[in-house]
């Protein structure tokens, strides 16, 4: 019964797994089988209800009961509780449980590595770095453990947490991505939400915000559909955090409100700090420090009594807010308190250097401190760009050229992160008299608007649909978007009204632009050209850019690029001449991604997944004989002649409908499989 429940969990049916466990517990064959079921039930409870180590009392009690008969199982149950305690920052409990598990395992094997990792996380988060490091080094053993996919999923959480507390964020992202690839290849849908949330968390820290946002959005979709409310909360909180950093006002407030409401309704409070910090990042990015006071006060209340080490970046933001509001004495008091705490990691050390600069009257000493902060934040682009911006402000009076260099680099990073509020602050500085009023060649900052052309037409602002004037107004937006976001007014008139007199067409265009402005700025006139507003994204353009990189990248990049393709380009405009060329290019690129994914899966022996990608390609292009041949050949090589026979027969029927003879390759396969 345990295996059936595991299968249900892996397939994404946690409710079914719970029912199977509930039915099996009264009939358990002895205390060991009962303990295994209770352990699995505890795993399920972790992500579907309030996360509280006190609720694991039964688990620990049962671990004691089976300690003599099944010491490894008992140690595993105690390790589960230790990792949970580390994850929820209940560090004294984590330390006690991990020490107990280490004693049971003798520090040997995968369970010993798991106990050591849990203890190392507890030490790292309480400032005992020297003691933590040799223990955290054992986390590498977790990734090499020889076990099933469910065990790998359980070990992934401490392994990624270990990388995060060591500030090895890129490695954490890549580790979560590798697990996702393995889980997808096995069809283990039920195991995806947690690694997706971990990828989002590490991606935020690493400044890989687009990856973080996409991972959190997918996790939210999967978790919300399966009742895993803790992971739903995790995903909502990460989406709020990214939106806050990017200055997307409505999206951040909406996600933060959902996180807080879900926290209240479920009693899971661990993400309330994250939601409030998202609002702090939003206020800072938008240059509205007064809006950060309430969420900072709430964070202070939530963190009351907890050690400040590990949370110094929050207090650094508090100091920045107080300084911007002119509350210098209060800011200096907070900074003195923070300096009494030895920074627990590189992030804290770099943040403290930036804080000190606020209180340096001497520009040269402030520049020295900020230069050190920029260097110390070399692994964290967002925070480094914030330090660069502050450095540019202090350099401006005496060294405008150096200031311009720092502000331009900060603007470049903020633009890459789509942090348009911060980028706007950099633009203001670059356009100031202190820097000669020259912004130079700046990258375009996304404005929160997106035109969607794949699978149908829509315009969204920060993910919320925006009504667009129907008829000619919508056609104008579509045409400009398809032309790269900019087109001459004459070409647009010709496309919309091919038989209109030039003068009459221009009058009609002015009327269309006026109607569109009623829905908000979307198209704008720039001399003789009509363009999408600066920073407006187009999903078809984004898909082509990401897919080009994906074709030379990893399997996970290919999957994300495939997910970007929402369907045929403008299916409602199939017979417009100006859509046919782009439609074919997008379609061919999508098919290329599917073929590449299928080939990679076939190369590593994932036969069923390779077939799935080729079938997806045949849904789009059903008359491609080569794909049928590739599928049949793969099945033959796997010894599955029956399915290969059926694929060959499908290909033969397709060619008969077209009155086209079969190729020699297909005829050879037909002979092999008796088709």
Taking all residues together, what is the mean pLDDT? 83
Largest sheet: 4 strands, mixed
The percentage of residues in β strands lies in under 5%
Helix content: 55-70%
Query: Uncertain regions: pLDDT < 50 for 5+ in a row?
Result: none
The CATH superfamily label of the domain at 540-673 reads Tetratricopeptide repeat domain
**Total count of strands:** 7
Structural class of the secondary structure composition? mainly alpha
CATH domain topology of the domain at 540-673:
Serine Threonine Protein Phosphatase 5, Tetratricopeptide repeat
List the helices and strands and how they pair.
Elements: H1 2-10, H2 14-24, H3 31-48, H4 57-66, H5 71-87, H6 91-105, H7 109-125, H8 129-136, H9 139-143, H10 149-165, H11 169-185, H12 193-206, H13 209-226, H14 229-245, H15 249-266, H16 272-285, H17 293-302, H18 312-324, H19 328-340, H20 346-357, H21 363-376, H22 381-395, H23 400-416, H24 420-430, E1 449-452, E2 458-461, E3 464-465, H25 472-482, E4 486-488, H26 489-496, H27 502-517, E5 523-526, E6 529-532, E7 537-538, H28 539-551, H29 555-564, H30 577-603, H31 607-620, H32 625-637, H33 641-658, H34 664-673
Helix pairs in contact: 1-2, 1-3, 2-3, 3-4, 3-5, 4-5, 5-6, 5-7, 5-10, 6-7, 7-8, 7-10, 10-11, 10-12, 11-12, 12-13, 12-14, 13-14, 14-15, 14-16, 15-16, 16-17, 18-19, 18-20, 20-21, 21-22, 22-23, 22-24, 23-24, 25-27, 26-27, 28-29, 28-30, 29-30, 30-31, 31-32, 32-33, 32-34, 33-34
Features:
single chain, 675 residues, mainly alpha, Arc Repressor Mutant, subunit A, Serine Threonine Protein Phosphatase 5, Tetratricopeptide repeat, four-stranded mixed beta sheet, three-stranded antiparallel beta sheet, 3% strand, flat
């Amino acid at each position: 019964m345990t295996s059936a429940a595991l299968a249900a969990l892996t397939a994404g049916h946690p409710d079914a797994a719970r029912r199977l466990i509930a039915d099996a517990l009264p009939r358990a064959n002895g205390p060991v089988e009962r303990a295994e079921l209770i352990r699995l039930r505890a795993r399920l409870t972790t992500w579907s209800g309030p996360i509280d180590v006190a609720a694991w009392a039964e688990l620990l009690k049962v671990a004691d009961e089976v300690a003599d008969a099944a010491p490894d199982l008992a140690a595993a149950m105690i390790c589960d509780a230790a990792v949970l305690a580390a994850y929820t920052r209940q560090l004294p409990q984590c330390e006690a449980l991990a020490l107990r598990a280490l004693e049971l395992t003798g520090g040997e094997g995968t369970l010993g590595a798991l106990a050591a990792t849990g203890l190392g996380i507890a030490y790292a988060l309480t400032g005992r770095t020297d003691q933590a490091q040799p223990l955290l080094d054992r986390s590498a053993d977790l990734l090499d453990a020889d076990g099933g996919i469910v065990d790998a999923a359980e070990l992934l959480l401490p392994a990624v947490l270990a990388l995060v507390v060591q500030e090895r964020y890129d490695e954490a992202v890549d580790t979560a991505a590798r697990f996702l690839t393995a889980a997808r290849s096995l069809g283990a849908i039920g195991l995806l939400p947690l690694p997706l949330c971990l990828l989002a968390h590490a991606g935020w820290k690493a400044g890989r915000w687009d990856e973080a946002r996409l991972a959190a959005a997918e996790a939210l979709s999967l978790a919300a559909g399966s009742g895993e409310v803790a992971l739903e909360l995790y995903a909502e909180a990460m989406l709020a955090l990214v939106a806050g950093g990017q200055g997307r006002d409505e999206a951040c407030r909406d996600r933060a409100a959902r996180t807080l409401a879900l926290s209240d309704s479920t009693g899971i409070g661990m993400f309330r700090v994250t939601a409030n910090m998202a609002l702090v990042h939003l206020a800072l990015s938008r240059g509205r420090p007064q809006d950060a006071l309430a969420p900072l006060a709430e964070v202070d209340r939530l963190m009351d009594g907890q050690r400040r080490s590990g949370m110094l970046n929050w207090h650094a933001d508090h100091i920045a807010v107080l300084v911007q509001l002119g509350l210098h004495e209060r800011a200096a008091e907070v900074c003195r308190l923070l300096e009494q705490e030895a920074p627990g990691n590189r992030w804290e050390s770099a943040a403290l250097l930036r804080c000190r600069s606020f209180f340096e009257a001497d520009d040269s000493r402030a520049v020295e401190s900020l230069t050190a902060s920029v260097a110390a934040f070399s692994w964290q682009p967002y925070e480094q760009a914030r330090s660069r911006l502050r450095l540019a402000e202090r350099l401006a009076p005496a060294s405008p050229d150096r200031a311009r260099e720092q502000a331009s680099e900060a603007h470049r990073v903020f633009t890459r992160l789509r942090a348009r509020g911060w980028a706007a602050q950099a633009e203001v500085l670059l356009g100031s008299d202190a820097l000669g009023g020259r912004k130079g060649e700046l990258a375009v900052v996304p404005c929160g608007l997106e035109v969607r052309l794949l699978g149908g037409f829509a315009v969204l602002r920060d993910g919320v649909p925006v009504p667009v004037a129907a008829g000619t107004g919508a056609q104008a937006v579509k045409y400009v978007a398809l032309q790269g976001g900019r087109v001459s007014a004459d070409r647009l008139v010709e496309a919309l009204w091919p038989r209109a007199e030039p003068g009459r067409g221009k009058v009609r265009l002015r009327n269309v632009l006026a109607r569109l402005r009623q829905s908000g700025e979307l198209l704008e006139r720039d001399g003789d050209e009509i363009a999408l507003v600066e920073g407006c994204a187009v999903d078809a353009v984004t898909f082509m850019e990401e897919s080009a990189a994906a074709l030379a990248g990893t399997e996970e990049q290919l999957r994300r690029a495939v997910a970007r393709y929402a369907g045929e380009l403008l299916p409602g405009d199939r017979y417009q001449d100006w859509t046919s060329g782009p439609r074919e290019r997008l379609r061919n690129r999508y098919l290329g991604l599917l073929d590449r994914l299928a080939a990679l899966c076939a190369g590593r022996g994932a036969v069923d997944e390779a077939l799935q990608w080729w079938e997806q390609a045949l849904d789009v292009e059903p008359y491609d004989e080569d794909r049928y041949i590739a599928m049949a050949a793969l099945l033959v090589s796997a010894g599955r002649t029956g399915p290969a026979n059926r694929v060959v027969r499908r290909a033969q029927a397709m060619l008969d409908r077209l009155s086209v003879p079969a190729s020699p390759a297909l005829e050879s396969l037909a002979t092999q499989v008796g088709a």
